[in-house]
Amino acid sequence: MTLLGLAFNSLRFRRGSFAATFINVFLGAVVLMSFASLFDTAGGVGVSSADASSLTTIAAAVGGWGLVIVGFGVASTMNLSVRQRQAELALLKATGAMPSQIGRIIVGEGAAISIMAALLGIVPAWLIGRVVLDALTSTDQIADDVSYRFGPLALIAGLSTTLLATAGATTISARAAGRVTAREALSQAATDGRSIGRGRIIAGGLLLVVGISCALTTATVLKDEGFTTLSVAGQACIASAIGLALLSPLVLRGLIRSVELVTRPLTGAAGYLATTAIRQRTGQATAITMPVIILTGLAAGTLYIQKIQNAANAADGITVSADDKGVETLNFIIVGMIALFAAIVLINNCVASLLARRQEFGLTRKLGATPGQILRAVAFETMFAAASGLALGTISAAIGIAGFQYGRTGSLRLDLDAVPYLAIVGTVVVLAITASLTAARRSLAAPMIDAAGVART
């Protein structure tokens, strides 16, 4: 059997991981192609230079950050999938497979999923792109006579960026898997003990510095620069969120020791199972934490930055222009789509990580744990990962909000409504707990003896 055939055969037996990655890539392709269609629309007949410039700017801005966020979401799912397959990869290495061959298997799977997902995303992207243009014209940011076009630029830009994001994500996962020896892979299959790489720490630190720098620039250099100030403040939230997401494994490992000391007397056996699982499988916990950080940082940051802008305009007696309304509408559209993508990544990662633990749950039941204890342990793990993500996401949002607040009002004093933030927290908790407990119950539905010998996902 060829390596590509082996890759496809592996996908057939790992439907859970395949579905999670497929959905993430599909939604990412829809987001990227829908906004890339604005390039085609900008090049249409009769489009004014001002409208063409606005459409191109919007498409480029969303495409750039969309590529980063989609790539990040796909990378988290691919990394989770690779971690779940350490025993399989160890067996391949033990039978003589080279690291480059292991890499080609992983990249081949990613490419196959990416192509299928991107092609199926064309029709939804066409529909959503039309909705985006309608929103722009309804707020008078684009002339009403601009006709929607979904052409080669949307397909080329959308498909190429989707493939680029997936290729980058799978290449990183493949390189990490290729560096692990067969003996290490077998031990990591049980403990998920791979340490965080130096490159990841450096990248996370640099992005965090970029986010803080954008916030400082917003507070000092870009005071009252309108859309530019809003844009840079938003970039501060995004860069900080991605940086903290990359560093989240270090945070989880540091927090779990303190949490264990406090909660162990209160949670009993379920708490012991949960804290042990988090220590040994930090990578799976961060698969939940990372999309929560992105979702919280981006949603909270954008919502409150816009609220600060509106409140400052009202205090100064400034009449909101059509352009300002258009910017606000555009912000909500962009953030809504990317936040939806992050939310679905969260659900997929919760489900994929728990379905892959069917064998672990079966062995735990053989050792005497009850299904109720396992479910409580899963709830504890999920709440810990989600709460950590909410805390780090809040920090990333606060970086951008503080910079914009000072630059717009000259003060760091905030008087904001807590309802939007509480809505974000509630949404994250409900999504994470519902997805995790549903997947855990499905894993526990199998007979104990059968589950203890099943490793498929």
3D shape: globular
Query: Mean pLDDT across all residues, rounded?
Result: 79
How many structural domains are formed by the residues? 2
Number of alpha- plus pi-helical segments: 16
Helix content: over 70%
Low-confidence stretches: none
Strand content: under 5%
Radius of gyration: 23 Å
Distance, first to last CA: 22 Å
DSSP summary, beta strand count: 0
Biggest sheet details: none
Return the structural class.
Answer: mainly alpha
| H-E string | HHHHHHHHHHHHHHHH
Characterization of the model:
By secondary structure, this protein is mainly alpha-helical. The protein has 2 domains: about 1-195, no CATH class; about 215-455, no CATH class. It is about 85% helix and about 0% strand. The chain has helices at about 5-10, 15-40, 50-85, 85-95, 100-120, 120-140, 150-180, 180-190, 200-220, 225-280, 280-315, 320-355, 360-365, 370-410, 420-445, 450. Helix 2 (about 15-40) runs antiparallel to helix 7 (about 150-180), helix 3 (about 50-85) packs parallel to helix 12 (about 320-355) and helix 9 runs parallel beside helix 14. The chain starts with a helix and ends in a 5-residue tail after the last helix. This is ABC transport system permease protein. It is a multi-pass membrane protein. Pfam families: FtsX. One of its GO terms (molecular function) is transmembrane transporter activity. It is found in: Cell membrane.
